[in-house]
């Protein structure tokens, strides 16, 4: 009976999602894409984008029309190139800097390859002067790291203040030299709002100054038959004439309300060389209980999970993200760690062959490198199916190519609805989480007993901030602790066995209630004044909250700095002699949260902390060596010279932190 109820709830969730994505009131209309599939004899079964591309190419090959010569810049693994080639364009040359990417292009430029006849030039775009004639069109998207979500999370975005954000100028240089009829420029959608619109304005002006009229939209790849929600900025620039983007082929904005191409349908019958693997490590087992479509946020207080491991918004959205088989997956990332999704709904990694399907790369397209390098190339690419639809609309409008079907064009006044649908979907997945957690809580019963009294635990502190258990004979720090009814008390000594308290931390909720309701107060007393003792006592606390309160680390307990300020830390220096040392004065200010959590000028911080800038900088170096995260322009280029960011009032770095290896 219970299994049948679970089955009912699964079907109920599926129907709710479909209703959100495809509202009943949407009236069915004729579909240009449906006609295209019919004419090309393509059925929307698994892997149909391959068949669609192959059929398109065969049709164009059988019609002798004037060649449309295309130059590809920043070609990557060839996503745009595949789409344009299938739509009847001739890719005469590809420019790509990264060797592994260039080798992929070369593998597929052979006589039997998808990019047959294309010349591949592996060279820095700054040194590239294409020796080509009669170029009709240019395609490409410069690297987007300086406008990416990762850049924003690091402390804002560099945009055009970074050399990588200025690569569009090389694109413009080549446009000026070759004077093609038009171009297609692709990039992350964040570029539009980066730096208050400054970067976007510069990019538009640069293209316009070389004689192109610009047409742009932010598109979601899922609207064009890709089993992946992936928002990208597309600019089409023309010397003459008008251009309109094509009507979506899938989803509620399509003419016939054609269902999205789901992840499950996309990977059906795929043949993989290797099976997907389970996720190991400290968090791998957590994936098992996460409902499909959700991520690490399932294990947060906000979702009311009984054992919340993470703070709300403390991780990227793809952390432990499990794909929903009934919808497209979220954006596939080029780079990530062990826990970067999407993961298969069967709690494993997707195989390379499955990832190619989710990105609509042809099954027979060869991608050079090991798994990590292949994912890097796939995640950096434009999905070929999106490129095909865009290329067809350009062929029809710009080059007056006759197609076996007519693409319906999207009026400029029509606003696409993928953003609004994303908000609805978030509410549905929140309900899925609530239902799953309710069932999980019932199964778990009462929370693990967190009452503990323990004396004489011995540890040594390693250089990578790992607190390692030691013996009573060879140790560096000795601890006693008491954890009872949400109150945590810690005492710590070094080998000198001092009997006087040197400093004392008091931690309480800032607004009366800490979001992690299991912890109501923390007190930490140190009988050691060694600088290293600060790291040791915080790492000991971290181990306790992981053991008794299921929080993964201090950041998960107190919250990610950009979103939370739900605690108050007070550092009391019990030994007055210590306060004469600028180290302890600065540490006290940081612990109290003074100018912590936002980017400030070095001069402002020095004045607030009561020291000169040289003293501040030298002491911050010492404090960073204890595991406190301190960022400036040298550690994060998004931060301007003369500015600092101290994200947390406690040492947040661990043995896995890349910031541990950077210098101020």
Structure description:
With 664 residues, this protein is an alpha/beta fold. It has four domains: 1-30 and 275-350 and 416-445, no CATH class; 32-260 and 367-414, 3-Layer(aba) Sandwich (Rossmann fold), CATH 3.40.50.150; 449-580, no CATH class; 594-664, no CATH class. It is built from 18 helices and 18 strands. A seven-stranded mixed sheet has the order 3-2-1-4-5-7-6, sandwiched between helices. Strands 11-10-12-13-15-14-16 form a seven-stranded mixed sheet. A hairpin with a 5-residue loop joins strand 10 (452-461) and strand 11. Helix 1 (2-21) runs antiparallel to helix 13, helix 16 crosses helix 18 and helix 17 (602-609) packs across helix 18. It is elongated and about 95 Å long. Mean pLDDT is 88; it is low at 1-16, 22-27 and 156-164.
Give a brief description:
The protein is α/β, with parallel strands linked by helices.
Give the CA-based shape: elongated
Specify the oligomeric state: single chain
Instruction: Give me the side-by-side strand order of the main sheet.
Output: 3-2-1-4-5-7-6
Number of domains: 4
Q: Tally the helices: what do you get? A: 18
- Mean residue pLDDT: 88
Termini separation: 62 Å
Summarize the helices and strands and which ones pair or pack.
Blueprint: H1 2-21, H2 32-39, H3 48-61, E1 69-73, H4 79-86, E2 90-96, H5 99-107, E3 119-122, E4 137-140, H6 149-155, H7 168-178, E5 182-188, H8 198-209, E6 213-220, E7 231-238, H9 263-267, E8 343-344, E9 348-349, H10 352-358, H11 371-379, H12 384-397, H13 418-444, E10 452-461, E11 467-469, E12 477-484, E13 487-494, E14 503-509, E15 521-526, H14 531-549, H15 554-558, E16 567-573, H16 582-591, E17 600-601, H17 602-609, H18 613-624, E18 643-644
Parallel strand pairs: 1-2, 1-4, 2-3, 4-5, 13-15
Antiparallel strand pairs: 5-7, 6-7, 8-9, 10-11, 10-12, 12-13, 14-15, 14-16, 17-18
């Amino acid at each position: 009976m219970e299994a049948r109820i679970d089955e009912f709830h699964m079907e109920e969730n599926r129907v709710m999602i479909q209703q959100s994505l495809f509202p009943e009131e949407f009236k069915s209309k004729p579909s240009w894409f449906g006609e295209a599939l019919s004419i090309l004899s393509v059925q929307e079964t698994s892997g149909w984008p391959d068949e669609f591309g192959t059929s398109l190419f065969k049709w164009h090959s059988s019609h002798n029309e004037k060649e449309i010569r295309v130059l590809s810049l920043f070609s990557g693994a060839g996503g745009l190139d595949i789409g344009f080639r299938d739509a009847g364009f001739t890719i005469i040359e590809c420019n790509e800097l990264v060797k592994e990417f260039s080798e992929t292009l070369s593998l597929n430029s052979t006589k039997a390859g998808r990019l047959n006849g294309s010349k591949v030039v592996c060279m820095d775009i700054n040194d590239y002067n294409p020796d080509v004639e009669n170029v009709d069109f240019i395609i490409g998207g410069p690297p987007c790291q300086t406008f990416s979500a990762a850049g924003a999370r690091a402390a804002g975005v560099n945009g055009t203040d970074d050399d990588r954000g200025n690569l569009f100028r090389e694109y413009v240089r080549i446009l000026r030299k070759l004077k093609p009829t038009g171009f297609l420029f692709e990039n992350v959608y964040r570029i539009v709002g980066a730096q208050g619109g400054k970067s976007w304005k510069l990019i538009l002006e640069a293209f316009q100054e070389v004689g192109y009229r610009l047409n742009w939209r932010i598109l979601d790849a899922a609207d064009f038959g890709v089993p992946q929600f992936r928002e990208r900025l597309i600019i089409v620039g023309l010397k003459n004439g008008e251009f309109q983007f094509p009507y979506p082929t899938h989803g509620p904005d399509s003419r016939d309300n054609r269902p999205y191409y789901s992840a499950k349908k996309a990977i059906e019958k795929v043949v993989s060389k290797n099976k997907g693997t389970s996720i190991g490590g400290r968090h791998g087992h957590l994936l098992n209980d996460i409902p499909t479509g959700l991520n690490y946020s399932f294990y947060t207080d906000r979702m009311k999970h009984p054992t919340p491991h993470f703070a709300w918004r403390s991780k990227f959205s793809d952390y432990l993200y499990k794909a929903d088989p009934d919808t497209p997956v979220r954006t596939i990332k080029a780079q990530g760690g062990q826990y970067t999704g999407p993961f298969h709904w069967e709690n494993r990694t997707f195989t390379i062959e499955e990832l190619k399907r989710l990105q609509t790369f042809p099954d027979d397209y060869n991608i050079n490198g090991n798994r990590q390098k292949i994912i890097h190339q796939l995640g950096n690419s434009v999905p070929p199916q999106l490129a095909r639809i865009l290329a067809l609309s350009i062929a029809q409008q710009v080059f007056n190519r006759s197609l076996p079907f007519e693409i319906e064009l999207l009026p400029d006044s029509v606003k696409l609805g993928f953003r609004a649908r994303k908000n609805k979907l978030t509410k549905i997945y929140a309900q899925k989480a609530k239902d799953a957690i309710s069932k999980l809580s019932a199964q778990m019963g009462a929370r693990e007993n967190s009452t503990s009294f323990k004396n004489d635990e011995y540890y040594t502190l390693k250089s990578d901030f790992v607190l390692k258990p030691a013996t009573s004979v060879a140790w560096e720090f000795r601890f006693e602790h008491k954890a009872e009814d949400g109150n945590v008390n810690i005492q710590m000594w070094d080998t000198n066995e001092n009997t006087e308290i040197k400093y004392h931390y008091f931690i309480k909720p800032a607004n009366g209630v800490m979001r992690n309701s299991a912890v109501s107060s923390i007190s930490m007393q140190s009988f050691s004044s060694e600088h290293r003792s600060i790291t040791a006592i915080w790492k000991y606390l971290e181990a306790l909250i992981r053991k008794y309160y299921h929080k993964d680390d201090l950041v998960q307990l107190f919250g990610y700095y950009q979103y939370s300020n739900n605690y108050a830390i007070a550092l009391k220096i019990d030994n007055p002699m210590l306060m004469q040392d600028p180290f302890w004065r600065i540490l006290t200010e940081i612990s109290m949260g003074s100018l912590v959590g936002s980017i400030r000028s070095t001069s402002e911080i020095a004045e607030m902390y009561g020291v000169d800038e040289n003293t501040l900088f030298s002491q911050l170096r010492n404090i960073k060596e204890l595991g406190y995260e301190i960022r400036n322009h040298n550690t994060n280029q998004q931060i301007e010279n003369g500015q600092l960011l101290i994200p947390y009032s406690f040492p947040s770095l661990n043995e896995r932190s890349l910031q541990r290896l950077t210098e101020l």
